Amino acid sequence: MFSRSFTTQNDHAMTSGSAVPPRKAFHQPGYGDINQLIDLVNNLHRSIYHLIIFFLEQFTSSIMTKISISALTMALLVRRSDAACPGEITLGSDCSLEALETAIAGKCNTTQLFGEGVDAATAVQELCEYDAPLQFVEIQGTYQLDRRYFNGGGDIKDGENTFEIDIAKLQRFINNDMERKLIAWPEYAQKEEYNANNGYGENGYMTNFNIDPVAEKGSCKYNTAMCCYVESHSDNFVDNTDVCRHDLAASPQSNHIKAGWSVFSGDEPANCVGFTWKEGDVSDTYKGNTLFYASLYQTATKGYMGNVPGAPLCACVEQMPVVTKADCVTSSGSDLTYKFSIDATTGEVSASHTVTMTYSDCGENDLSAQVKKLHAGSAIATDIDEYLVGDDCDITNAAYLHDEQLLVPKANNPFENLDGVEYEGLVWKQLFGEGIYFLPPDYDAEAADAEMRADLKACEATLGRQCLILRKCTSCTVDSHKEIVYKRLTDFNEFQEGISTDTTMDIPNLFMDQWRQNNNVMHVDYELYSSVKDALSDTGIWQQSDYNSNSAKYGFPRNSGPHGYIGNQWNSYEWGGGHADHHAFYIEVPSGTSVV
Hints:
By secondary structure, this protein is an alpha+beta fold.
């Protein structure tokens, strides 16, 4: 493993031009020839040392793809001071600055360890993330091998060698290191610049496994990943699921298709296996190991390979096909211990670990059940039903085609639309809608926001409140969400196009695609009701709110509900997956005002 190092200077340190300290010459009478010989040896020693360093640097720069660019450029050498830290520092099971400070208390401090001007928190974070664990890329050797494998190709499946030759390196890792290495979540230097410039965040994650919670195009919001195999090198392939369909737009980096969909009969053999993790839980610590166990281990030991057409072989569940079920695996470690080591000659600080790993199926060997158990009470526990449907594919595919790809009956019935119609004693104006109520807002985001603000304010003069907003949803599957009324209690922040912030808001975007809590807190800024009657009488106020915590494109009302979380009733004008495919947003029109 390549170690990361940090540098400083002190009075007793070697200077930057003398990486190897010169030996003392003998200065005794009669030994002039010996002194000359020793000087020659010393000079030759230094020349050989610098030549070795040169080749090591060239070698390292060509293959060191295992860590982020920030780590690659952070090449500082530690010089040890008079109050030298121990050569080895044991941190225990917690690799953190706090654990380090506890371990060296009374012996030295972080300034003596890392040097003046070096931020100790950053230094420790880099060592703990990139040096202590085994980087995922080290298992196969390169980013390209990992990328091609997780997208369904690569040398193991398509190479010219025999299967046994292509998995030989994997097999050595399984035999020698799988049970004694903590594996990091895959991250690559090659992805740093691309991700930063294309909405994937300030990280080096592969698109299949982007766990950045604030990235615009992050792909692991459900903390769940899955692999689906469709063939095997051997004859022991186990068909454990039915593949129902795949939204091609969910995995454009794998299939290079912008939009489209595939529906499958469910008769094709497939084997899906996945895992889930929860932040701060043991499942989070060892998720890199579990990813290896669900993917490369299955290929090397069972011969499983081949992706569902148009889908990745392995990815976070949002990018994977909709299937009836998937097996579940997990991993855990015991006696995890982190250690920092200081090279006695160079002062270089490196990090390592020891651990004993075990791998197994989840308790029920059912991914959906494990997700619901680990994430009980959260939106993840309900939203997972969008991807692990549990039903016969014919049933779920018929509903999908009916709701999202085809028009439903009575699409031209004028009484379905409330635009300009009196309903529950009020007249309504349609703002926008989807499906059979299709109506886009003004193309100019600022103009659309200004119109909606004016419509909301129109009731204040006569009613002393802002006008009500009504969402009617004929395709929603829960009665409480077929009609939802939004009553605004406070003024909206000033306009800025896009996602809401603490000081700005794009009101149409808030309802259509990015339902967030900023300036939009239940019981403070608004109330929700399941009918116009309840809203007017201020009864039946909803109690459970839910919002997007990042830039996800889930619109109104996310998984909010009258008494608890209710999933999949949200609308989204950019993403699919929810049941609100046929809905319209209306706004109350004050008495005596015409609908425009």
